[in-house]
Amino acid sequence: MASLAEQIAQFETLRAQAEPLPTDSAAYTTSAFFKSKNAGQGKSKSKPWDHRLSVDSRSQGSSPLKTANRGKNMDMITLGTARPSPQFYPYESLTVNVVDDASAKENKPTSAITCSKGESAYNLAAALNYGFPAGSPQSVRFITEHVEMIHNPPYEDWKTSLTCGTTSGLEMVFRIFCNPGDNILVEKYSYTGTIVGARAQRINTVPIGMDDFGLSAKELDSTLENWDASKSHKPYVLYTIPTGQNPTSVSQSVERRKEIYKVAEKHDLIIVEDDPYFFLQMGRSSKHESGSKEALQEYVERLPPSYLSLDVSGRVVRLDSTSKILSPGMRLGWLTACTQIVDLFEAYSEVSVMSPSGPSQVMMYKLLDQTWGHTGFVRWLAHLSDVYANRLNMMLEACEKHLPKNICSWKVPTSGMFVWISVDVTKHSKAAGSQPTTEFQMEVEGALYERSRDNGVLISRGSWFLADPKQVSEAALRVTFAAATEPELVPGIERLGKAVREEFGLSETI
């Protein structure tokens, strides 16, 4: 496979040979315009997924007002769609100051980037108007190139579409595949936003156990093999956070991902791969100078294989996000799947969110494409990994120093933003050496949460993330090293340790 630098050079050549990007409002675009010539070479097409679509999505069509805008010539006079003329927008330009060096240097230089009405690279007038559901040509081009370089999906007809963030994207993905009353498979502990969002659509979550290597492939297979379809619909959607899992921070091993994909092939599952922590790798590169071409190549090679990169059938729907790598407030991300699924996603977008925010796309394009380029973006991702690795080490050292290790235990994460702390409630004075009940475990977990708040530190209760609240097996806490400032990390853990000692009746010296 070509190196990162070689792939970037290949896309630069393709751009130089291509026609200029359109600058009009809601310009039609697709990943097919921007893939390399080798993207589909020797690859088969995805499977058809009609049998996995929800009742609603089988009848979901496209808006005729949106499709009418496709393929218009540059001299077309628009009298058909109610898009206000840019002369009525009270904004002439948009300027933001950005870091123009994505390396790990201190006191990074900044530069002002501006987007104006009539600009040939990215017309602000188009960004302020109604947009195309997939995103602007400028955004889709960069993200398509990025997806091909990082994941290189092993089937021909994949596409990428921008989202208004993963929360919005997931809501539409569930509508595409699930009917009210359906079941989806999830990790035993999972992101609360997804659980609540699924329940709002009357979708039931079926928890699958986890171990040190992530979601259990054996339990997944056993659950499906022994499913009693006479009682409820057999699940055919698996939702997983494979890297730096939220909340446990467990990362699925390479072998585990292959095992799970094999189970998905066996039972014909759709895999929804929610992977916002994919690029936050805690392992360091020690062979080369930080930010160098060699260091960036090493960083990319160290990334785990995504389910998208293993997918030969088009059964994976991958969701990426800018929230953990650029800014949550941009409300931007991207979804990659086979053409059939992405087309449905865009059809749903047309009648809901319509399109991702134009100003947010301008900010992303001006930074990633015009200022950093693909090399700079990867350099930034590698830099973030190093920064978070330092923060993680600070937190782990604080845990060793301030948490009573006969009560609290944790594993060192290799990715993500979290440390999962298990609490041994049998050491509690009220346990009296007996096997603790579920109620007592939750009582202690709740008390630790409240005592921590009283001590001036906010943590998350592990039970908040249970896909099935009845499946309590331990008292646990989730702490993140991403939100607080570095000087606050150690005092934060110290305050948590004080809360544990207070609750368990320990002296400060233990």
Which descriptors apply to this entry?
single chain, 510 residues, alpha+beta, 5-stranded mixed sheet, 4-stranded antiparallel sheet, 37% helix, globular, Class-I_PLP-dep_aminotransf, pyridoxal phosphate binding, PyrdxlP-dep_Trfase_major, transferase, aromatic-amino-acid transaminase activity
Set down the secondary structure blueprint.
Elements lengths: L3 H14 L37 H4 L5 H4 L25 E7 L10 E7 L7 H4 L9 H14 L7 E6 L2 H12 L5 E5 L4 H9 L3 E5 L1 E2 L2 E2 L1 H9 L11 E4 L13 H14 L2 E5 L18 H10 L4 H4 L5 E6 L11 E6 H12 L7 H45 L5 E3 L7 E6 L14 H17 L5 E2 L13 E6 L5 H19 L6
Helix pairs in contact: 5-13, 6-7, 6-12, 8-9, 10-13, 13-15, 14-15
Explain this structure.
Helix content is 37%, strand content 14%. The radius of gyration is 24 Å and the shape is globular. The mean pLDDT is 93. The strands form 5 sheets. It has a 5-stranded mixed beta sheet, sandwiched between helices. The protein has helices at residues 4-17, 55-58, 64-67, 124-127, 137-150, 166-177, 192-200, 217-225, 254-267, 293-302, 307-310, 339-350, 358-402, 438-454, 486-504, and strands at 93-99, 110-116, 158-163, 183-187, 204-208, 210-211, 214-215, 237-240, 270-274, 316-321, 333-338, 408-410, 418-423, 460-461, 475-480. Helix 6 (166-177) crosses helix 12 (339-350). The protein is α+β, with helices and mostly antiparallel strands. Belongs to the class-I pyridoxal-phosphate-dependent aminotransferase family. One of its GO terms (molecular function) is pyridoxal phosphate binding.
